[in-house]
Amino acid sequence: MISYGSQQAAAKQKHSWDNPLAGAFFDRLRGKRFGNTAYVRFPLRLPYLPAAAASRRTPSPLPTPSEKENGLKGARFSIGYLVGGTVTPNSISPELHTRFSKQGIDQKYQRIFKCPYCEGPVSVSYDQALHLIQHHCQSTRCAAAGERLPVYITDQDIYRFLPTVIVSTVDKLALLGQNHRFSNLFGRIDLICGKHGASFGKSNELCDAATAVSRGEHPLSCSGAPVYYRPFHDLAPAVLVQDELHLLNEELGTFDSHYETGAMALLKSLGAKSWKIIGATATIQDFERQAWELYLRGSRQFPAHGPDAEESFYYCPATEKIGRIFLGILGVGRKHTPAVTKALSIFYHEIQKARELIANDPVAAAAAYGTGPLNSQEQRNLLFPVRIGLDVRPDAKGLRSGSRGD
What we know:
Layout: E1 2-4, H1 7-14, H2 18-29, E2 38-42, H3 49-55, H4 65-69, E3 79-82, H5 94-103, E4 122-127, E5 132-137, E6 148-149, E7 151-152, H6 155-161, E8 165-169, E9 191-193, E10 197-199, H7 208-214, E11 221-222, E12 225-229, E13 239-243, H8 250-269, E14 276-280, H9 287-295, E15 300-301, E16 325-329, H10 336-360, H11 362-369, H12 376-383, E17 388-395, E18 398-405
Parallel strand pairs: 1-14, 1-15, 2-8, 2-13, 3-7, 3-8, 13-14
Antiparallel strand pairs: 4-5, 5-6, 9-10, 9-12, 11-12, 16-18, 17-18
């Protein structure tokens, strides 16, 4: 296991979504034609805005010209959002199927807004035959024009189409003991239908080939698409990427550790190699102990510490791109709670003052806050994502309260 242990490295890793994509190319080169390459997990509140935006740009929907020239074979690179029923449907129920067929797809289910191939506008529609929520690029000049973008947002679609990159929450791993289809992600499948995706037994109810196999038949095609049978080359995920590793502690870490080792045991039982684990964190301490408690594995930190706190062979601070300011407060003559309350009061007062000034006099606001190049709407957008988090930590002299504004 590798732990990204510094703030600079963690920030770089969060936005380096080319790493799963590089793994996908490597999988194709070594003969893997289908299946998940990287399982990317976030804490329970998924997804963080920057991380979500970055992950939506991960896979190109179609092979690039160089990919075709080099003769790489296999399914298109794809992405799946395994995020639960509060964000996207777990499955298309008969009621949803009827509603989507008559009224179309609710816009709240759209997960991609710019085509990852040409950055054109994207729309959503419903494929009645496949019971599939699909995204399409609206640009007629896009290489993906006329084809659905390989983006899957319901659990049942992820189980049958096995996306190259899966973006998920931590709690979804608990499904390995509740839903037998979850094991499809680890390579337990009997066949792959070119139209309906993978199936174990007759778990893919839309696939006539899966139904025929359950009767002892061996069809070579289904709805005009070829059907492939096992053995398949290494369908199991190669990499687990865990974001905000330091949050998997205390109660959440205790429960999660059972499923982490359970997933590795499942991979072993299916004859697959256990996935490599990358944990991204900016604030972890004693990462060797936490990695052992979660995964029963040793770990190493990358990048290693440099000659001083802010510099190493792999990174150095970019002062012109400061994105976060940390402020520590020590309440002198008062306890930590009143000190933090006062700091919050001052912070919210200043934010409200800035909002009112932008609304009433954008020119004065631009002069006061140094936002001259921005118009009034852009200034309001700048304040919209501002939030504050509290971090109360003990030190040698008592309690120290910290506030963080993003």
